[in-house]
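hi! just following up on the protien thing from before. the input was this:
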Amino acid sequence: MSNTKKSSKKHSRTAASFAAPLRKMALGRHFTWGASTSAYQIEGATGPEYGRGPSIWEKYFEDRPHLDHGAVACGHYERMREDVQMMKRMGLTAYRFSIAWPRVMPDGHGRVNEQGLAFYDSLIDELLANGIEPYVTLYHWDLPLALSGENGGWTNRHTCQYFADYAALCVKRYGDRVKNWATFNELEVIVAGYIGDGLAPGLSNPALRVQVGHNLLVAHGLALRAMRAINSEIKIGIVLNLVPVEPANDSKEAALAARSLWERGYAWYLDGLFKARYPDVVLAEAQASGVVFEPGDMALISQSIDMLGVNWYLRLVVDEKGAVVPVPGATVTQMGWEINASALSRMLIGMGKEYKGLLPPIYITENGAAIDDVVGEDGHVHDPVRTTYIYDHLCALEKARRKGLDIRGYFAWSLMDNLEWSLGFAKTFGIVHVDRSTLKRTVKDSGRWYAHMIARDRGLKAPKF
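and the predicted 3d structure came back as:
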């Protein structure tokens, strides 16, 4: 009896320590509650014994041996079933993950790796057996290395057709079980790897910006067509990272500068997908860069999609000259990003007006904060800033829904602390802590709170950890 009382008291105390309220949220009866990851950031198992071909990230880290890399990452390849059981305990109704193109097609086209295909078979079956809906992203930045180099990666339109063939392979294999698909994750960040050095392939050539971005949209269109030809029942979309740009003051000049930066960096993709044209600022850049759009490209790009994934982390504030300026007194994450949940609802409401009648259902496919945290002496990870961050952004979604936005789900980024690409393992976004020495998983307070929120929303008993 004594031990029971101690256990009960401890559970009560930790439950009461949550930094954010637990309440029924007005997000709809069938709202999807999930978490997201990506293959290279968590899987590991990159060696030749797994049949996987190298990606552009192996080359990137080979050239920068001082950086962390993904050879082990979170060891998810070996710990997949354990991780799915953890998701089940948390009450997730969906899990968004990416398929590693080089794991299933080592050269990017042609031969396939049955061992890699079988891994995703097992993951999908394990998720479904535990009541978790798989949401698959086909490309989360890990281009097969064989398609880079002489082929030019995403600078070459041949890669667009190779991607469509890969997408068709995946739908043939998994389309009987996977209902929800996204072609790409964050086009703007893929482009960043060509115009800068901080992401693979790290080409540092700004002149490639429009060509790569346009080819990605063409590849999306080709894949969409190929996937629907195989299975017309699946739902297909794309995931964009969207960063609203707001003026630092009330001047006309600052407003125009903010609009120009938004159109150049973000509305570019939205306009192509939903208006079948690019903003004038992008067209001017294309002309200056010598980029030629082929006949039929915009019709291909603007095919209807079933869902739009929005990854959201921050806003930008600019002055009259278009320079990004700091926000006085702002709370920022490890990434230096301002925390401002109200900017999310403003952006979504603005999109609803800009693309009225054109937007498909929206899923927040990534949202989270990199925060310093450690496992305490009590065995817990107390991360009140992250907990409050998630709660405030869910409140922002409630506000957007009240304004008529069709928001169907929320996926926390990330399920677990992982490799934050070239920034290594120090930037911790997870709602689950991963010990770098043992790879032991510990659900943080934010993850425990999220699990309680899901249970509250679904009318289920609160989980225990």
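Residues 1-16 have pLDDT under 50 and may be disordered.
Residues 252-275 form the longest helix (24 residues).
cheers
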